[in-house]
């Protein structure tokens, strides 16, 4: 590698006719280990490096990338950018950052992490596993993991911008399984810190097992409308799907629910949503975004009022505003999109116990799943398989599982009518007419929906499998919306 590969690349690109160019270098060192049942099951140490290169040719942006930072790759990158730009069909301007503005100081790198031995890291997860076993005799097994990361980003372009930052952090995760009779329940927590000594394996192991124990003997809840509290982790998962509504990129494609709502009240006055890349205690922090634009805190929603979309340079140019510093790359080879950094709600004035007392009777959602299929950020609809527990008289009551949580319109759709399931005794032909078979019928709001399962039979009863599935769906009070997702996996064809 040349003494300064990036400067040489930018110089040669200019000589080759690239009007403006940018190099993005990403380098990471990581360590990870996983322990389960007294044994070390996974142990990895990795060093990765790659460079993304983009440049303007005749006003069009071209892209190329490499992991080989040598003399030969310079020519390959330049040719790749030129060829890519030639094929580019987008007419949107894609400017590069021309500098200006002071970079904020953010304490992201702890050099002491570089000196922590592998033995010390393994001792953390061994102590965590031992604590799981000591916390409760019902502990069955678990997933005890540690990882440390050091990541450096350098961005330089032909306008003279050249800046670098390095971050480091460590993560400890415990996933615990407990068993009582035939019932198995899971619990898990994680800790992330830039200080290795701040990771507490004892507290993490104890809390994970105690959470799992609280989920034993969980049952579904009767269909209905409930007052709901989302546990922190559950809301983070939901927010991770719906954060695209704040992206100017999504808004400019006509796919944001917030289009035309700047300055309007979109939430309760107690809601303030912040994107803050300057928090040293969060792993999404950085002094500049993936285009080199200095980072700033932004109020997306302030006291219920929608204040701003998030922008990169491209969307900002199109909207006639300044970039918010939210240009983001999935990795060095990816194009620049728009994404938040550290997205969080400002805390309220009530403690969690006070929230429970205020709700009185309701449900706490601690975990959601099926986000890839059950949540639609374009329409705002969601219907998700969830876990949690009921609230009775302001106190934690019965653990819940196999429940579905949905936004209010979906609730109306799912629960205004009871859903019943039955085996379809009639034969249902396959599309090619080659065979017939049993199916399942779901009766939803007076309509009958059928799914073909062919001639498969339950190996235990030798009855048509459709009968077993229909009975299970009915007994577990599975709403129709979830049935549709289940049908995709079980069935062959959906009949409406």
Count of separate structural domains: 3
The CA-CA distance between the termini, in Å, is: 62 Å
Query: What is the overall shape?
Result: globular
Low-confidence stretches: 409-417, 430-435, 488-496
Beta-strand percent range: 25-35%
CATH class of the largest domain: Alpha Beta
**What does the average pLDDT come to?**
86
Estimated radius of gyration: 27 Å
Strands of the biggest beta sheet: in what spatial order?
3-2-1-4-5-6
CATH topology of the largest domain: PmbA/TldD fold
Q: In this structure, how is the largest beta sheet organized?
A: 6 strands, antiparallel
- The count of DSSP E runs of length 2 or more, i.e. the number of strands, is 20
Number of helices: 12
Relative helix content: 25-40%
CATH architecture of the largest domain: 2-Layer Sandwich
Give me the CATH superfamily of the largest domain: PmbA/TldD superfamily
Secondary-structure content class: alpha+beta
